[in-house]
UniProtKB/TrEMBL annotation:
This is Ornithine decarboxylase. SUPFAM superfamilies: Alanine racemase C-terminal domain-like, PLP-binding barrel. Transmembrane segments: none annotated. Coiled coil: none annotated. The keyword Phosphoprotein applies. Its EC number is 4.1.1.17. Keywords: Phosphoprotein. It comes from the Eukaryota. It comes from Balaenoptera acutorostrata (Common minke whale). Pfam families: Orn_Arg_deC_N. InterPro entries: Ala_racemase/Decarboxylase_C, De-COase2_N, Orn/DAP/Arg_de-COase, Orn_de-COase, PLP-binding_barrel. It catalyses: L-ornithine + H(+) = putrescine + CO2.
Length: 283
C-alpha cells in the first residue's frame, strides 16, 4: 500500500508498481494546528474525483482514503470535517468503480498536559463522527497514527550544564530588580540535536531541576543555550529557577517524539546517548 495525491504520482506507480494498493490523501483545514501539513500534502475534493477517474483509466486499485489534521491540532471541528470529506471521497470511489475499505485518520493528537485540547476531547468527537459516516457494518478498516501521543512521554532528556555567564542588569535592559543578576546557561545539547523539535515542531520545552530550591533562595531568569556556535541555538528564555552551577543537570520531559530521530552532528557534536531504565518496583 502507498499514498498519493497527484496525477504525477499515479503515472509513476503505473510504470513502476501497477499492482500497488493506493490510498488517496485528502487535504484538511490545518490552519489551527501547530504544524501545518496540508500546505504540502493532500488533494481537494474536486481534485480527488479527477484522480480517482484517472486511476481507473490506468487500472490502478485505490483502496481507501487518508488525511492528517496537522500536528498539535486545536480545533475539534477539523477532525469531524475531515472524516466527512473522507466519506465523500468513498462515495466518489464507489461511483467510479472502486471498492474502498481503508480509512487512515492520521495523527495530530496532543501530548503535553498543559495543552488546551485534551486527547479525550478529541476522541469524544472522532468516535461519533466515525459511527455516523463509517458505521461498524460498513466494512471499512480504520487506522490512526498516534505516534507522538504514545512515544513522547516515554523519554526524558537529561542535559549537563557545561558553562554559564553572568549578565548584568544594564545588559538586559530590564527594570525588574530580580534581574540584577541574570545567568545565561549553556548545556550539552541543542536545537541541532535533541531540541530540533523547537525549530521543526514549534515545541516549548520546560526544564525540571534535579534539586529543589531552598525557601529563601533567590530566583534568576536565565536563558538556556545549546553547545553549538549558532546564535539560533537557544532553547529557553525567561525561565525562573535557582542559580545553577557547571556540572548540574537539567531534565526535560516528553522528549520521545521528533527529537533524536532528527538530530544531527552539527559542529561535530555527537547525538545524545539513549539509556533504557526501569524502576526498582517494576523490575
Amino acid at each position: 500500500m502507498m499514498t498519493f495525491d497527484s496525477e504525477v504520482e499515479l503515472m509513476k506507480v503505473a510504470r513502476a508498481h501497477p499492482k500497488a494498493k493506493l490510498v488517496l490523501r485528502v487535504d484538511t483545514d490545518d490552519s489551527k494546528a501547530v504544524c501545518h501539513l496540508s500546505v504540502k500534502f493532500g488533494a481537494t475534493l474536486k481534485t480527488s474525483r479527477l484522480l480517482l477517474e484517472r486511476a481507473k483509466e490506468l487500472d490502478i486499485d485505490v483502496i481507501g482514503v487518508s488525511f492528517h489534521v496537522g500536528g498539535g491540532c486545536t480545533d475539534l471541528e477539523t477532525f469531524v470535517q475531515a472524516i466527512s470529506d473522507a466519506h465523500c471521497v468513498f462515495d466518489m470511489g464507489a461511483e467510479v468503480g472502486f471498492d474502498m475499505y481503508l480509512l487512515d485518520t492520521g495523527g495530530g493528537f496532543p501530548v503535553s498536559e498543559d495543552v488546551k485540547l485534551k486527547f479525550e476531547e478529541i476522541t469524544s468527537v472522532i468516535n461519533p463522527a466515525l459511527d455516523k459516516y463509517f458505521p461498524s457494518d460498513s466494512g471499512v478498516r480504520m487506522i490512526a497514527e498516534p505516534g507522538r501521543y504514545y512515544v513522547a512521554s516515554a523519554f526524558m532528556l537529561a542535559v549537563n550544564i557545561i558553562a554559564k555567564k553572568l549578565v548584568l542588569k544594564e545588559q538586559t535592559g530590564s527594570d525588574d530588580e530580580s534581574s540584577e543578576q541574570t545567568f545565561m546557561y549553556y548545556v550539552n545539547d541543542g536545537v541541532y540535536g535533541s531540541f530540533n523539535c523547537i525549530l521543526y515542531n514549534n515545541a516549548h520545552v520546560k526544564p525540571l531541576m534535579q534539586k529543589r530550591p531552598k525557601p529563601d533562595e533567590k530566583y534568576y531568569s536565565p536563558s538556556i543555550w545549546g553547545q553549538t556556535c549558532d546564535g539560533l541555538d537557544c532553547k529557553v528564555e525567561h525561565c525562573n529557577f535557582p542559580k545553577m552551577h557547571v556540572g548540574d543537570w537539567m531534565l526535560f520531559e516528553n522528549m520521545g517524539a521528533y527529537t533524536v530521530a532528527a538530530a544531527s552532528t552539527c559542529n561535530g557534536f555527537q547525538r545524545s546517548t539513549i539509556y533504557y531504565v526501569m524502576s526498582g518496583p517494576t523490575w
